Amino acid sequence: MKDAFGAPQSLLVLGGTSEIALATARRLIALRTRRVWLAGRPSPALDAAAAELRGRGADVRTVDFDALDSASHEVALGKVFAEGDIDVVLMAFGVLGDQARDEEEPMAAVRVAQTNYTGAVSAGLVCAGALQAQGHGSLVVLSSVAGERARRADFIYGSSKAGLDAFAQGLGDALQGTGVQVMVVRPGFVRTRATAGLPEQPLATGPEEVAEAIVTGLRRRSETVWVPGSLRVVMAALRHVPRPLFRRLPV
Amino acid sequence: MSVDTVSLTGWGRTSPTTAVRFRPRDHEEAAAVVRGRGPRGVVARGLGRSPGDAAQNAGGSVLDLSGLARIGGVDAAAGVVRCDAGVSLERLLRVLLPLGWLPPVLPGTGRVTVGGAIASDLPGLDHRRAGSFARHVSALELLTADGEVRTVLPGTALFDATAGGLGLTGAILGATLRLRRVTTGLMSVSTERAGDLDDLLARFTAGGDRLPYASAWVDLMARGRATGRGILTRGEHATPDMRPAHAGRTRLAKRAGGAPGKPLLPGLPPLPGGLLGPAAAAAALCNEVRYRTSPHARTGELRPVPAFFHASDALPDVRPLYGRGGLVRYRFTVGYGQEETLHRVVRRIAARRSPSVRAVLQRFGAGAPGPLSFAAPGWSLELDLPAALPGLARFLDGIDEEVAAAGGRVCLAEDSRMRPETAAAMYPRLAEFRELRARLDPAGAFRSDLSRRLGL
């Protein structure tokens, strides 16, 4: 159960090697979290992440989860929920893709879309159902500002996040009154392994800042979290820039 | 029986969860709910006055017993009443006072049910003399996991576990209470001001138990030499010869509510503004005004019984002032001889400049036999803080450690944030409680968010 300050006792991370998710898990373990499930494809990185969190005093377990294999989600996640209540589900899986290559190879682009959107739809619905049955909990969905308005530089990734974002918003409205909170997190450019080597954009943040914003959002029971917070204003303006002008903006 | 799906929180409006709420009209309907429960169990709920998650059951059933509110026979000769669990103490007081009787223990608000008072084993203002609520229960009707209603008598293990058992041993459906005899509906009240915490504790102790009802408001925002200053209010039941001449015909006052314009005790003071952000200064100012306007020392002031015990009920709901995050109530007790801990806690709270307006200090006597009963000999401090205060979670964890190190404990019924390990350390007889529950209710029919959070 979450306490009065929104600190969960159990956490399920989908995409167990995500740097943002692990930074969040570390913060939550420092508060109240005792049980952590890391869901992801079996890999040494996943085991290393589990070992690291175990060192911080949490009871960490891993579970096989492949975002692309939507059919397996119900069984894989059902197993987790059968073991006890999950206070917070953090949907942190996703791939950035390589825009130039993806434009050349449609199948690679489809993989981005399937991971970021289709996989999230099935996993999100399975988790939402389980959370609804337990009458409490939060579903934290890592979206992106890239989904807020399509850009030439990353519209394949952006469109998948746009779909995810719309899905999560609608799911949040559908779950209103069921005790389940859906929180959409929209970070800007985050410095992680995935973005290493890419040119840094304005208002860039690190995984720690995003994790901090997620923990604060849980405490405040927020529905939408922008990281950094100023992006809310920036994107509100950018959303209305006419397309001929937007195309020429250096964003 | 009405059934609906609702999002519930405690009085503090933190951590909402959703459950199916049943409002039974009689024992049979209540038993049917327990027999037909789902896998996530059931818990009883009264007026929702518990600040934390004690009367919530996420994804399960909540048995709202506030409709089960018949006051059965009052034996005015023997001073015994049989009533349903959903009867509020406020109503019980209103019914009994004209008959010359009082509910045995009256906590700071009358808007709690008899069932809730037993399940939390509430201590009153005269705990040193009267103990907590369950001591005055001569029998209770308990709906247990098998769907049977049993009569449970004091002295049994089940009774002890149910007193302060947070509704986890079963749903209390009714109780027989032994009442206190009073000859007038008035209290003779003495008020005094104490310049710091030492002074306050000394005044508490001075005078012995001549005035059995005692509690103090502590100004937790005062710093420096005034740290822990407060107003001590004590009272006794007025005897007929204390009454003013014009009160001759109204032997037992009927009118509820306090005298307007008087600083009231022991609940909430009037609040002029919000409690968060820059308005914290308003809270400090409010405390300052409250302290300055109270008399240095006054004795023999007569007040109606409801105004003395339930002053806060006459005020409007102050929760909106605590902001969207709701409020966190923190109540702990430390033993006599551990005054240094109390000092340290008060100093730490004062140093934080948290907007604390409501803070009640009490003195407890001998504890109850219940394994989870809160009251223990010593000092008890209860305070409300806005949950949205930055860093409050860690700060209270630190206070927990301090209290635990001094052998004290935090009140479970009012908790909304403790660590399970801390709760187990503070209540060493928790294992005994768990064992009894495992025996009586192996499937875990009675569960609440609190029991899940603390692993009770």
Taking all Cα atoms into account, the compactness measure Rg of chain B is 21 Å
Structural shape of chain A: globular
| Content of β-strand of chain A | 15-25%
* Total number of domains of chain A: 1
Helix content of chain B: 10-25%
Describe what is shown at a glance.
The complex is a heterodimer of chains A (251) and B (456). With 251 residues, chain A is α/β, with parallel strands linked by helices. In chain A, 47% of the residues lie in helices and 16% in strands.
Key phrases:
heterodimer, A: 251 residues, Rossmann fold, seven-stranded parallel β-sheet, 7 strands, B: 456 residues, Uridine Diphospho-n-acetylenolpyruvylglucosamine Reductase, domain 2, Uridine Diphospho-n-acetylenolpyruvylglucosamine Reductase, domain 3, eight-stranded antiparallel β-sheet, five-stranded antiparallel β-sheet, 25% helix, 24% strand
Structure description:
The complex is a heterodimer of chains A (251) and B (456). Helices cover 47% and strands 16% of the residues of chain A. By secondary structure, chain A is of the alpha/beta class. Chain A has one domain: Rossmann fold (3-Layer(aba) Sandwich). Chain A has a seven-stranded parallel beta sheet with strand order 3-2-1-4-5-6-7, sandwiched between helices. In chain A, strand 2, helix 2 and strand 3 form a beta-alpha-beta unit. The longest helix of chain A has 29 residues. The mean pLDDT of chain A is 96. Chain B has 456 residues and is an alpha+beta fold. Chain B contains 13 helices and 19 strands. In chain B, strand 5 and strand 6 form a beta hairpin. Chain B is globular, with a radius of gyration of 21 Å. About 5% of the residues of chain B have low confidence. Chains A and B meet through loops of A and strand 2 and helix 13 of B.
